[in-house]
Amino acid sequence: MSAQFTPPPSGVLVPVPTFFNDDQSIDLETQAVHAVYLAKSGIKGVVLMGSTGEGIRIHPSERRAVIEAVRKAVDAAGFENYPVIVGTCEHTVQGTVEQLTEAKEAGAQWGQCLVPCYNADVHNEDGIVNWFYDVADKSPLPIVVYNYPGVSNGLVVQPSTLAKLSQHPKIVGCKLSHGNVALVTQVTLNPAVDMKNFHVYTGLGSILVPLLSIGASGCVDGTAGWFPKSLVRLYDLALKSTVSQLSPEELELRKKLSYGIAAQHEIVVKFGVPGIKEATSRVRGFGKVGSLRLLRKGGIDGGDAGWATWSPIMQAMEDIEKTL
């Protein structure tokens, strides 16, 4: 990475789960194999220990091992310098910078910093800007602002705040895990935001097509952990912003992928991290169903019978995935 503090690449990135053994230790082997699988499938980078990775449940002593295992595996598989982004969920500047420093030492190129949200004040724009500027000034890594209202006390970072944050040379993007296209538009199309140096990602692959049409850089989507090629192909098709640029076959595939991704995204909406981990296990064989620290249990309601209700859409997506 150059000293220009470039953003992560455009395209599809995956917030990967953290895989656990039966004794709750981290399954570093599965962690590494899954990351290589994603790299081989066209995924542009991985986010470790974000919300999907249960970062809040990963002990500081374990973080370095996870990063190093992934870095070593992707490098050995021929993906040297493969983008590795590491999440932080500290509320202190000092703690956040410590995690970012360790992430760099272990081989990561970017940090993804959750907006501090304990007793969140949605009107405290100056406080958010000052906090991120302080972190960025001290961080050895460029950072991506992470706004996920579902885990952030309902806090939605406003476009004006993101525009101010984009002016810092080491704040190189944002991941917005809300579905408010109007708010995203006010960032991506704001003349004050240099989209070459500040990439905007959605956390929802289901709205990838409309967001790319307004200048977003891609998605960081959990469902790409089990259907990576489908999300990558949808991204490629979405870059053709007008229907006239698509052949009839491409247009039909874009419709099928958009529908399938939106339909199976309901697993994420309804079941959160447990659903993501169960789908990753059942569809791709990575990890074990119910292998969680978050609440230590959970998954898709109804066990095998509950999973069966998702089989038609999963099979339709798998049929497409196999052709890509």
UniProtKB/TrEMBL annotation:
- Residue ranges the record marks as coiled coil: none
Q: Which InterPro entries match?
A: Aldolase_TIM, DapA-like, Schiff_base-form_aldolases_CS
Keywords of the record, alphabetical order, are:
Lyase, Schiff base
GO molecular-function annotation terms? 4-hydroxy-tetrahydrodipicolinate synthase activity
Cross-referenced PANTHER family: DIHYDRODIPICOLINATE SYNTHASE, DIHYDRODIPICOLINATE SYNTHETASE
Q: PROSITE patterns from the entry? A: DHDPS_1 (PS00665)
What's this protein's name?
Answer: Dihydrodipicolinate synthase
| Highest taxon of the lineage | Eukaryota
Residues that span the membrane, as ranges: none
The record ties this protein, via Gene3D superfamilies, to: Aldolase class I
Instruction: Reply yes or no: does the keyword Metal-binding apply.
Output: no
Task: Tell me which Pfam families the record gives.
Answer: DHDPS (PF00701)
